[in-house]
Amino acid sequence: MANIPYPLRFKPLFRDYLWGGRNLAARLNKSIPAEGSWAESWDLVDHADHESEVTNGPLAGRRLGQIMRESANWLLGVDHATERFPLLLKYLDCQSVLSVQVHPSDDFARRMNPPDLGKTEAWFIIDAAPNSVVYAGLRKGVNRENLADAIRLGIAEQCLHKIHPCAGDCLFIPAGTVHALGAGLLVAEIQQASNTTFRLFDWNRVDAQGKSRQLHVDQALETIDFSRGPFHIQARQTTAQPGRFRLVDCDKFVMDLVTQPGSTGDDGRFHILTVPTGKAEIRWDGNREPLPVGDTVLLPAQMPQVRIEVERGTTLLDMYLPN
Ligand SMILES: [Zn+2]
To answer: Cα(301) to centroid of ligand 1, in Å?
Structure first.
């Protein structure tokens, strides 16, 4: 399969967890079903549990995993060492607080049955209701014993570092960090393509039948990095391009925020572009492709340089693998 590279679009996969709402449609134009509460839109994923399907161009109908098997160089560039597409992009509509959780490192996840990737993730806060919170990391001085006691007593919140985020903020949550998204947040999340979560506290909630959700306290305590304390809002680093800010630069992914016209690609790497707010357009080789709010495209590594046009007030996220 040798195709002229073009921006790939995928069919989003929607998840109806209990904490969701209608904002994926209202704010991000996602085509969730007309009824019900919808928590997550998985815009791009290649995992044993879920796999995105291309909706446009010559590869329409193909799944991301198939493209990886047949044309990994075309998609990822020559320097890849992975069988599955390494990143997962989601949008989340958090109408009530999510469980307090932690994700394992690659080392830990590799030893599980079945094995998985670890999960380092980052959040871009699109909207935050007044007084909404995120929990990111442990408060200073909290150790394994304190946390285990607090979980047993149903007061784990007292151990967590709490932040009031604003629209446009970014939080970086490496594997091993205790975290929870609070109510009233609309979030774009980039993460390793893993589906492993250890839940350590669920706010003492029970469902209509009086049942609580399963916790994984032992694995969580095994996984938490107790040497790391509180996490804070990421500082925006300027880059060589005006209006392009580096939000996260870690060994799993880079996340840039683009707020002014610029360019991307032509660097031997794939780029995931998504538009949390506003309106953008990409142009290359005489082609143009609109990117309205909520849209996501994957630019294969073989794409030539792409020009990014953004309307005033737009936020566009550009995510790719580090060098
Ligand atoms: Zn998480």
So the answer is: 28
Q: Which of 171, 193, 223 is the last residue of a domain?
A: 223
Same domain, 211 and 64: yes
CATH of residue 257:
2.60.120.10
**Could you tell me if residue 57 is inside a domain?**
yes
Partnered with residue 299 across adjacent β-strands are: 271
| CA angle, residues 259, 262, 126, in degrees to nearest 5 | 25
- Residue finishing a domain among 159, 192, 223: 223
CA of 283 to the centre of ligand 1 (A): 34
Please state whether the predicted TM-score (pTM) of the whole model is above 0.90: yes
Distances (CA, A) of 300 to 21, 44, 219, 265, 297: 33, 13, 37, 9, 10
Amino acid at 67: I
Q: 3-state class of 292 per DSSP?
A: strand
Kindly give the distance from the C-alpha atom of residue 303 to the centroid of ligand 1, in angstroms, as a whole number: 31
Domain coverage including residue 19 = 13-223
The amino acid at residue 255 is M
Three-state secondary structure call for residue 95 = coil
Mean pLDDT of 298-306: 96
Return the active site residues.
199
In a domain, 248, yes or no: yes
User: Which tens digits make up the pLDDT trace of 201-228?
Assistant: 999 888 888 898 899 999 999 999 999 9
272 C-alpha to center of ligand 1: Å? 20
How far is ligand 1, taken at its centre, from the CA of residue 121, in Å?
7
